[in-house]
Design goal:
alpha/beta; Rossmann fold; seven-stranded mixed beta sheet; four-stranded mixed beta sheet; 6 helices; 28% helix
């Protein structure tokens, strides 16, 4: 059973539907005990960083999620969920900023979330883009996947990068560290390529 974390922000139904399509049982939950007992965890997300962290704190999910990531079970963050796994983000209103100019994240992966620099391209990036420099075991070089975001992950350790893509700049499209995976794109909206990725993640939960 894979737990899909419900914190009030995310395309939960789309993730659940994609997992069902590939024959994987899942549970949408905000219960820490159910998350802890799951064979794998998916942290989805659509929206803004600061309100998302506020919701995770309000639902007492911050420590359980950090514990799950450290437990060795497969843990996948999607889009905003990927960004929340970093140390912090500059995507926040000024009244929520801390002394370093960002709002704190889960701190599972070293790095910070930055806004796309002005390159003349429309922000948010919205649409299909190609993965390259792929090293992650869930991904395939050259796959086209679906993105919707205005901010990107600037990792503290480049060796965590599992794939890159390009939108004005080359940036991290996915990271991987042991049992921990992050994807800036939406595999549940990325057609056959996305279903292959989710199938590989499910296989990780059974390894």
């Amino acid at each position: 059973m894979i737990a899909i974390v419900d914190y009030g922000m995310g395309n939960l139904g789309s993730v659940e539907k994609a997992l069902k399509f590939i024959g994987c049982e899942s549970l949408i939950t905000s219960d820490a005990k159910e998350i802890a007992s799951a064979s794998g965890v998916i942290l989805p997300g659509v929206g803004s960083f600061a309100p998302a962290m506020e919701e995770l704190n309000n639902r007492d999910l911050v420590t359980p999620l950090i514990d799950c990531a450290g437990s060795g079970k497969p843990f996948l963050g999607i889009c905003l969920g990927m960004q929340l796994m970093l140390e912090g983000s500059e995507e926040c209103s000024f009244d929520r900023r801390e002394s370093n100019g960002v709002v704190s994240g889960l701190g599972i992966i070293p790095g910070f979330v930055r806004r796309f620099p002005d390159s003349g391209l429309k922000v948010p990036q919205m649409g299909w883009n190609r993965l390259f420099d792929v090293s992650g075991r869930l991904l395939t070089e050259g796959d086209y996947v679906y993105f919707v975001h205005s901010y990107f992950c600037q990792l503290g350790d480049a060796s965590d990068t599992a794939a890159k893509t390009e939108y004005g700049i080359n940036y991290c499209a996915s990271f991987e560290r042991g049992n921990i995976f992050g994807m800036q794109f939406h595999p549940e909206k990325s057609g056959e390529a996305g279903l292959r990725i989710l199938s590989k993640f499910v296989a990780e939960t059974k390894a």
